[in-house]
């Protein structure tokens, strides 16, 4: 019995350390208000060993009754409070813990995983999956993103349409001038690129009107958000036979959520176009791209004289003799209510030179021929400045955007044009000034209604002078005051959206022209046209009623725009006025069969007594270097077209395909009088009736494999164009058939190799004639080798071969090679352009009654070495 | 004009107020910690598999541990059904992760739900959290900028060493690891088979709880197990290519029986490749309670 008692006692004693030695309980309270905190994790420690743990209940209480060793301290942890430790005094079984609030500063967590993620209308591209070390700018990455295209002007295109907004960190500081970012931002600073489909930038219109265009938002890496980013280049070299070449760039930017700044100073004489970076690609209220002629920064400054300048479709640096400098200062702030204020100052200075030779062989009806050879030697100097301020407020209830800008340009254009045996020196002085204001306002008047006002007012003065051969001078002073205002109302009724728009455009246009030193024959011919001072008032009323139905992915839109324009012209011979009606109904049908497949049908018809500007030309003398003409009868035109397309685009399956076709027909009648200066003398009224039609079909497929490991792109187009013309008393009718096929492949089989190759073949033929077709073969390719992570070499080729009946042209291939060494944030580079030193580049063309070729002088071989850096 | 230029210049010269997305964390806001997860899923391989996107979303005393990569794939497929071209030639991001398991944990009630899948088997199991009793060791380290203390404990069948930070006072951690007085930013088992290493800690841009629940539940062939032990057994079998369905169709558990040409029967032991986070002998020791 004693043994049993002893054994039991010993057993109990041996279990003592594992059993509760009393209990510890307590309360956790907020140190500020003394209120208990529920859910606090309380650990009980004995020395370094945690012996018990648990959470406080709703009253902030905790209790431990089972532990191996008696705890000597407690720790209490709860998010939002500082970790608190409390000692447990010997003999005490109740402990009270007071916790103090403490905030932790944390950043937003990045999302890194799949290279492409689609969520509703937003597709997110994670840049690191697409970026290569050789990539210098955001544009280098954009062109690799499946579904995104960047055209030669730098415009970002998605689903065949230019984007309507470009944001960095959710702010649109540059109002469409986004090349300033895409051409300069180091892609290693970017976390992701978001592509937002069907982007409606006006919040007050959300759910009421949809947009078929997309927007791009650039999201920076955490350490680049709100930080000053810097990148710069400096390079020098020389071009054979001529002079030194250099390029430099300084780009500083800060993209915060509430304040953004960007400054750029850039210059070169290496043939690379930089003034295009100042152009707006698209902006709110305007559809499509604002198309400018090459070298034209503002189309309102074209004024009296349209200047000729060539842009080839191969890289500018092979033919573009320039000295360019660009300055851009931009700043934007946004307040807590989301109102943005933007300032921008853009400046450009550029000299541009061109040497061209062209030849035409005319074959007339009677079989006689004439050869004309032209040469041109052009120098174009330009100084451009634009200062603008914008305010934008975008809420769910209302949208207001007002942009005010002052811009000016000084331009001097000299050229020596030789035609046949004669040559002319031309000099244009083209100062221009413009003040403009654009207001867009939208109010969401109800859940299904909205009212918008748009107002565009601008005053332009172009005071241009043209001098021919140092003697004939024409002065042209254009003063335009124009205001265009519309009010539109949108009403949703069931599945139908009705938009009614009324507009008024008022314009006052004053023209002064003075012509001195003209040849006697021209003076005589123009005697009846004593007009050199014109004033025009134009008032136009427009109405546009459109209705759109949406049902299960099927959308139908019918538009009925009407235009009534009244024009009154004062000139030396009296006053003329006229009313111009216009009607342009259109219909479009689209069907989203499933999210990636869309079918659409579009048709439109328009009949116009052409714009009032044509009437304004009555009596106005248009002078170019070899003709003086004036339009005698206001032309009339009508046009209709119908097109059908089927698009499949799946970013996730990395595949897109499209098939489209259509017919386009336009006819116009006009009559004009003209006097050609030298070779071709022609006078009197010339009636012209032209009808042209095009039947076309095209198809394109594109497939990406892996993360851009292989990209295949192939397309073909077939069209028949027919022209019927009654000109100079002769009937002319012809039809051409043309085929174009192109294919390209991009290969990135390994990290050290990137190869691209593109081939384009085109063929056109006059139908019904026994003539050989015109054919051209274009080959382009590039290769980048990266044998070491920090070193790469690259090469590119461009080659065009053309065949026309009787001749063929093989241009010298345009070759370029380069090497780059990267260390830390620096890159040292070397490049050689035009390695084979091609001196000219030729193009041939064949018309129904003449053949011609054009030849451009090329920049000789050049070498450039320098340093690029980015912080 | 001059005044305007001066104003614009001054505005440009004023340094932009350095914007920081840092936000204050209070008890109401969630946290997301992203871990690199190194694991040997297969005992025959050298080195580790890595999933760099394991996320721990903490909200109050609840947490979800999952692969962000798999979440993004699920969210993509949720919106756009898998096109046939993807099925035939899957782009890289659709090849997924090797870590499909997701844990929904409630620390207050000490309950958790685990979802897992392998081949065509999708499973859900209910489990109970154990309370690890950590022993604080000498040794500190800085992880993600946070000073961390080291601790060790025997937990779920393995000896785990953890690094936790008192600067983020939550008791959570990667996988089912928890119970330290601060957030666990690194953990590894004593055999070096599994390592969790935090690479980022911050605020989630969005709450994924609903989506994660929906993606996990919306599986047409989801099997629910009341016992986490049973689920682990089944999933381990499946992951070792011992398809549960095959077994249910009459294939015996254990070595494969193969008949040779001479008629003799040979027993072929299958190579045990897959290593579960909770070792099998843990369940044996625990008995069949779970």
Question: Can you give a write-up of this model?
Answer:
- The complex is a heterodimer of chains A (871) and B (290).
- Chain A is mainly beta.
- Chain A has a domain at 12-99: Sandwich (Immunoglobulin-like).
- Chain A contains 5 helices and 48 strands.
- Chain A has a 32-stranded antiparallel beta sheet that branches. A 5-stranded mixed beta sheet of chain A has the order 9-10-15-16-14, with no helix packed on it.
- Chain A is globular and about 125 Å long.
- The relative contact order of chain A is 0.07.
- The model of chain A is unreliable at 6-20, 283-292, 611-634 and 673-685 (pLDDT under 50).
- Chain B has 290 residues and is an alpha+beta fold.
- Chain B has a domain at 31-223: outer membrane lipoprotein receptor (LolB), chain A (Clam), CATH 2.50.20.10.
- Chain B is built from 7 helices and 15 strands.
- Chain B has helices spanning 2-13, 68-79, 84-88, 209-217, 228-239, 244-248, 280-286; strands spanning 23-25, 31-39, 49-59, 62-67, 102-106, 111-118, 121-128, 135-143, 146-155, 158-165, 183-189, 194-202, 222-225, 256-259, 265-268.
- In chain B, the strands form 2 sheets. Chain B has a 12-stranded mixed beta sheet, sandwiched between helices. In chain B, strands 14-15 form a two-stranded antiparallel sheet.
- The N and C termini of chain B lie far apart (80 Å).
- Mean pLDDT of chain B is 74; it is low at 1-27, 79-96 and 243-253.
- At the A-B interface, strand 2, strand 3, strand 8, strand 9 and strand 19 of A face helix 1, strand 1, strand 2, strand 3 and helix 2 of B.
- Strand 8 (104-106) of chain A pairs antiparallel with strand 1 (23-25) of chain B, so a sheet runs across the interface.
